[in-house]
Amino acid sequence: MKADPAVQRGLLDLAEVDAELNRIDHRRRTAPELAEIAEAEKAVRARRDARVAVQTQLDDLDREVARQEKEIDAVRAREERDRKLLDAGAGARQVADLEHELESLVRRKAALEDDLLELMERREAVEADGQHAAVELEKAEAALAEVRHRHQENLADLDSQQARRDADRAKLVATFPEPLVAQYERKRKAKGIGAALLRARRCGACRLELDRRVISVIKETAPDEVVECEECGVILVRTAESGL
């Protein structure tokens, strides 16, 4: 394929734009915020799990408190009934039975109330844990929101850079003949680089110094003939720096 040497040199500008676009894409895919976001999300999940665990404990304790209060109410109701029977003038034998039962009920009620007090103290402690878990979750969610916001700002900046470079690329591509652009794109797709400068007999893409035979062939090739690197296959652009 033939192309004016000046047009071929323009491929270096296109290659530089493409290199910048590659760098932008790399920064987008490897942004440090991505790892921060992953860690922040992990922290949020852990804090949520902790809060759920505390809430489960509170629910269990609430059920236990309700059961204990219900049992205390039942004992009090039985105690109240027995006292009413005593006040109503029960027989001597019934009085003895009622007094014995009342003593048992009083002891039972005291034990149940002690157990209830212990449950309430435990619940108070767990509730404090729940408040702490809620605060820690709020902090973790705030940290996640902050790093996500920072990531979005950086992405917006990269998008702006890419838009400018895409516009530059479109202008450059329009200056080349279609066959040359097609060859360049094939090389770029296969190698990641479409064209590179031949400087001091070294390919700017693969960085290898070409042997004398290859240099001799290139030197004898017409300036308007498009040549490729024998090692990596990209288009080699010849200038005064090529060492030919």
Structural commentary:
This protein has 244 residues and is mainly alpha-helical. It folds into two domains: 5-25 and 177-242, Orthogonal Bundle (Helix Hairpins); 31-159, Helix Hairpins (Orthogonal Bundle). 76% of the residues lie in helices and 5% in strands. It has five helices and four strands. The chain has helices spanning 5-29, 32-87, 92-173, 178-191, 212-220; strands at residues 195-199, 202-203, 227-228, 235-238. The chain has a four-stranded mixed β-sheet. Helix 1 packs antiparallel against helix 3 and helix 2 packs antiparallel against helix 3 (92-173). It is rod-shaped. Residues 14-192 form the CT398-like coiled coil hairpin domain. This is C4-type zinc ribbon domain-containing protein. Keywords: Coiled coil. It comes from Actinokineospora fastidiosa. Pfam families: CT398_CC, Zn_ribbon_9.
Short structural summary:
The chain is mainly alpha-helical and 244 residues long. 76% of the residues lie in helices and 5% in strands.
Write the layout of secondary structure elements.
Blueprint: H1 5-29, H2 32-87, H3 92-173, H4 178-191, E1 195-199, E2 202-203, H5 212-220, E3 227-228, E4 235-238
Parallel strand pairs: 1-4
Antiparallel strand pairs: 1-2, 3-4
